[in-house]
Amino acid sequence: MTASNKKSTPSSYVEVAEQKRLNAAREQGVPWKKWGPYLSERQWGTVREDYSSDGNAWNYFTHEQSHSRAYRWGEDGLAGISDDQQQLCFALALWNGHDPMLKERLFGLTNSQGNHGEDVKEYYFYVDSTPTHSYMKYLYKYPQHEYPYKDLVETNGRRSFGEMEYELLDTGIFNDDRYFDVFVEYAKADPEDLLVRISVNNRGPEAAQIHLLPTLWFRNTWSWGGDEPKPALGQVSNTSIAASHPKLGDRTLHTEGAAELLFTENESNANLLWGQPNPSPYVKDAFHRYLIKGEKDAVNPAHKGTKAAAHYVLDVPAGGSKVLRLRLNTKPTAEAFSDFDQVFAACLADADEFYERITPKTLSEDERRVHRQALAGMLWSKQYYYFDLDRWLSEHEAHPLLSDKKAPRNAEWFHMLNSDVISMPDKWEYPWYAAWDLAFHTLSLSLVDFDFAKEQLLLMLRNLYAHPNGQIPAYEWNFSDVNPPVHAWATLFLYTVEKELGRADLQFLERSFQGLLQNFNWWVNRKDPEGRNVFAGGFLGLDNIGVFDRSAPLPTGGHLDQADGTAWMAFYCQNMLEIALILTESDPAMYEETAYRFLEHFLWITYAMDRMGENHDEMWDSEDGFFYDLLHFPNGDATRLKVRSMVGLLPLCASTIFEPNILENHPKVRELIELFRKRHPEVVKQIAPVDDTFIGVGGRRLLSILNKEKLQRILGYMLNESEFLSPYGIRSVSRYHLEHPFVFHVDGQEYKVDYVAAESNTGMFGGNSNWRGPIWMPVNVLMLRGLLNLYPFYGDDFKVECPTGSGHYMTLFEVAKEIARRLSGIFLRDASGKRPVYGGITKFQEDLHWKDYILFHEYFHGDNGAGLGASHQTGWTGCVALTLDLFARVTGADALQTEKADIAARTTRQQVAGE
Q: Which of 48, 341, 691, 709 falls between 20 and 30 A from 850, CA-CA?
């Protein structure tokens, strides 16, 4: 560890056990994170497994095939774990005696089957986890009657965009509480010694039988050509299975009690799938055929293979429970369970101690529950992601350097090799990384594991990820799509927080800056083709927010100037400017002129959004007091697309506050600013000034797209409850458009944007997300950041009406706190004891065994806060933990006294602070 990374802590500070593990992993390389929840929840239907000619990944590898067909690029499983290269996997399989198939993975609808796109149709919860996964807990709710696969597919297939989704609870399968709560817990005695405890609770009124098959298997790396050696599993006693892998080494799975040990190969059933002979009589679906179809010869009588399970049959009394214990380790032992309960108790106590240390003391019991489960969801959402594009394209016979055949997608990314544990948006609905999601993930992850958070940001900038031209990969469906450039902001956030904790990691900052510089140049060269300092980027992560599909050619011809794309780039400039100024401390000659370069970029971008005088080809509408996308027609005419949406609010985020001595400390930057001011006085006058004519509280200086007047006008919309301000946060589209939809006609075709509070009413971008009204956590976090950043400049004397028209005035800090309160309120019990996230679902609102398990959805109903979209997108929705943490620790007085521009980063605390 370099000197700059050493931490300073109070003399009274005592490291908790989990923090010691984190420190040992960072400083000594102790592999505490080698084993974790790195299995996907869904590997089938992914781009990686798609070898079709038309790129229809959902239909090429289906759920029905998944129990018989070996995966090429990864593995999935129920409550599963693996090593960090996913060589050896462990997960749970279940059978209730009635299902037509063994429950080895979660079921859900494909994009074409769901009336609102793909959707998992199961109830499972990431209950707890420490950052090293020394303790983890998962809950799966398993029906006792036959799972309604057919009903879910057919009923959802009959429903339209305008109808609600048909959910598992709607089928009646949980009536009379005839289901099992299956808890799976993990604990680590040491980095290579994993304890597993499975508790089955019968919530029904009668005794019920369940088959449990804890399963151990190797990812299939040997069936795809080459000389990869085949690992082996074998029975060594009636209660133990030996696992031998040429890279991973040897270990043993110890089982307790009377279990039948079953063995087969993790290889495709080619005879069933394609009518071809199987290389071995023992294939992937052997346990399903053995148990459910009664094919006793499906399993290997020699008790060896590459997939094995311990088959338990449990009769669980009504209201009762049964517990199984297993242990996977490298140590041969005759007494695998002698200290089992003590180790589990100690690991759970360590987890409690860790969260007690990092959680603000002022949080209520319910807030602490939401805070901890949000962070648990973040940690459970890690997944080993493997994708070798060079090999994948070659296997498609569509490598652009070797073939004239057109690849279904991603041909220009043949340089890419991904083989890392990555934080996923949702391991079932989105079991692939998304670049801009990942940046938000790192904010919450920094509350528990700074090292992992930083590693995630650096991954996207590595040569094996980022394109040689500087583009950051978007996601596997199209790596060339364009996501908002938020990596620089996340990088600066992490650096600032860690510096406050006594560990200023300049090496991390400089490594990031070099990659970000390449990406910034890509944006400038590719997304501002006319050099006018206005940017387009396609959909920019906001899917259907626009009048048109912004990733497709415009029906009008011409091009679109995007208010959000341009604001994102202004924001990017500010972040890069701040990073460059920090790096001048170590190399002023190199970084001062670079810093000025970003300042100048920002000034020109801001001026392009609203030039001096009355112009009709810019994004700021002075009459409305709002930013809009600008449509340029082929004949040179232009018109604003007057949709009041998040697109017009995002310029609020592009603000940076500098301390009074900033120019004195950087004379070269000051010299260049003076030159610019003399040459372009109209530019400086039009934007929030960078000269001495406007100094804020404490002598601070402001760099912002919004001057005071624009700020007041935009906040008038944002804080209006009839427009953007919902009881649960900031809406993505103004509620004004409910009764006043924006309509645009082209060649007899109508294009319309109206306010849709819930799921999408169109099929644009697959129909599984909606940015035309609901509340989205990431952009709300950016709104909070903008307000908190502006507050130290404007101070307590600047107040705005909140809500608009209420007669109640707040400082910008108080406004931020109010929005954060509304966001947190989505998950917290209200005055009636209900959680808005669960809407009108009685089971989740009232049942003792449901109501305190929190789901962190992808987005939320714009009026009532109900959860929508992907049900386990803890990724960026996990930022609720950050908002709870932030506003529990900081007051307005703290914000005014800070010497840091980014108050959100300044006031966030992580466990090493010892608070």
A: 341
